[in-house]
Every structure is written in structure tokens, then in C-alpha cells.
Amino acid sequence: MTDVRRTASMSQVLADIKPYITKKFMAAPCIKEQDIQAICQILLPRYKNVQLMQGLANNKPDFRI
User: Per-residue b/e over 15-47, b at no fewer than 16 CB within 10 Å?
Assistant: First the structure.
């Protein structure tokens, strides 16, 4: 079976996840935990060079693209 996914640039990935990024005044941008599944469903079937990692950093949830 042929892989039809394409290679993504960072700007393409940011454009796809922009609706899910929230930012409060003077806080770092973040993504709500309930949105992670939707982001995975958007990015993984579309791009072949995108990897998602979920874990903990400094005892806080950490999600990296």
C-alpha cells in the first residue's frame, strides 16, 4: 500500500493546530488535554514526518510535536 502522507513544514503543522492552542495573558501557549486526540487524528494521517510524544515534565503534562 502506498503512503499518501506528505512531508509537513512547521508552519503547516502550526496552521492545523492553531484552533486548539490557547494562551492566557502572560502564560505560555498550551493545548487542552481533551484536544490531544483531535490533534492526533488531524496530523498523523496527513503528515509522515510528524511525531507526537506525550509524558510528564516537571510533574506537569507535556505534549510535544
Answer: ebbeeeeeeeeeeeeebeeebeeebeebbeeeb
